[in-house]
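ugh ok so i messed up the first submission bc i forgot one of the chains. this is the corrected input, ALL of the components this time, i swear. 618 residues overall. if the numbers dont match what u have on ur side tell me asap before i send this to the collaborators (the ones from the other lab, u know who)
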Amino acid sequence: MPSQPFQGVLVPVLTPFTPHGEPDAGRLAGFCRWLLDQGAGGLSIFGTTSEANSMSGAERMALLDTLVEAGIPAEKLMPGTGACSVTEAAGLARHAVGRGCGGVLMLPPFYYKGVPDDGIFAFVSGVIDRVASPALRIYLYHIPPVAQVGYSLDLVGRLIKAYPQSVVGLKDSSGNWSNTAALLDRYPGFAVFPGSEVFLLDALRKGGAGCITASGNVNVPGIRRIYDDWRGTQAEALQAEATALRKALQAYPMVPALKRIVAHFHNDPDWAIVRPPMLPLDEPQSHALIADLTKLGFTLDQRPSSMAA
Amino acid sequence: MPSQPFQGVLVPVLTPFTPHGEPDAGRLAGFCRWLLDQGAGGLSIFGTTSEANSMSGAERMALLDTLVEAGIPAEKLMPGTGACSVTEAAGLARHAVGRGCGGVLMLPPFYYKGVPDDGIFAFVSGVIDRVASPALRIYLYHIPPVAQVGYSLDLVGRLIKAYPQSVVGLKDSSGNWSNTAALLDRYPGFAVFPGSEVFLLDALRKGGAGCITASGNVNVPGIRRIYDDWRGTQAEALQAEATALRKALQAYPMVPALKRIVAHFHNDPDWAIVRPPMLPLDEPQSHALIADLTKLGFTLDQRPSSMAA
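and heres the new structure output, hopefully the right one now
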């Protein structure tokens, strides 16, 4: 097994847009710095929560360039390189490797449905062959509720066996703990990250590497405490606290809700902007969300100085 | 209602790849010419059958450039400009308009699932605003079995009302005749193309514009006869004949099967190449397919001279 560049609480970073709907690189760099300061173990920029697939490949590459030039440590970055075409996925992965990123988070090709495992295997092989770099570290991105296409348990094993230096981990956003548990049981040393902190304590007890979770955008400290103290007597209580916040968030469309929270607590209304096909929360939803969080005693460390571009 | 640039039998053209897996522009141009010679009313290059989403945007634009430069009439082309991001979809549509294409076939954004109609409306608006050309003619591409996200009947009406000069038609690949019939009933003058010739005669009787069908790649003449003679006494028999071929094809994965047929009848084995995540038919499947077609008396006009680049 290769060395594992990532562990702990990884955040699929929200992407801020300008009022004209363009990605706002400066504000993103400030937000990335703030997340790292809060204790994020890595930044999965360009994930589902990042609205990555609502941006072109060129937009994503330009944002990554800006982040690295702004001093965000590339080894902390795990950009999503998901695309339906092997050429685009390879182009994004090659760019990320060239920028020194610690790894990439790769969706399976997600347009055609019901495709055979052999076809997905050929896709991943095609990306690895085209990138042709020993520095490539792929984290498979398994999110069947959205992508509809996923990496089966057997396919994961075939990929690890064929590419042990390149296919080094997986984010499991299936929402199905039995799948995460099976991955941990079958493939020791392979870095498995549940896609929600709800499963963090259970995963750590079975050798999980941490989690990659949308709610990290607003709760790195609370989730990080579970990671830091999972063998301690408070672990269950810390897990219950983080889970309660997650459940409150899940009552709303996740990405618009997270952006609304950042907009509210960072006093920056533009943060609520999303790209189509997503829509921002409307006013009643926004008020209800903030009220729900207030009941939980939730607040967000603002650190205005680090939010500047 | 604006003038309708397309009618009849439109073909979502198969994309040939080289043995190295790269799009083969010369062979594609020859195939397009052959389809037009056979009576295709238009060419929906870069549709689902074209493996468009298995190609990058840059690859699609380069192919379109080559086709136009090779003399394929741009007004006969309806390239798919489907993409999950509004910027990429707009870039592809702008390029197609710049090349003089008769229209574009546009998927809804298909990564996020369960998105509201308002979000899809905002996406289409975003494309139209960004292209900002009176020459843009959008054909909505409704294919929920694959994209999972679709254009609802009400959303279609809202788009027609908001953009009567731009949103001029729809390909209905729902496989659900009641949806096609409802579109034809509700929106007279709007060009509705069922996504399979199985519904062609029924659609023509209700004012449909024709069909856009994968099997057109191997059966333009048979489907064209229905279109040319739908008021005649032989219409039902012609429909039954075309439907029988379609049903035979549907017993196999459609794209690999169609490519296998072209490879076989045009004596050009490379035509069977597909891109991941698709896989070519294996040998037993290939033999069974050709045997099934032989039983139906099927053959393919080879015209080797027009197949040259």
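quick check: Residues 304-309 of chain B have pLDDT under 50 and may be disordered. that seems consistent at least. Chain B touches chain A through 40 residues (CB under 8 Å).
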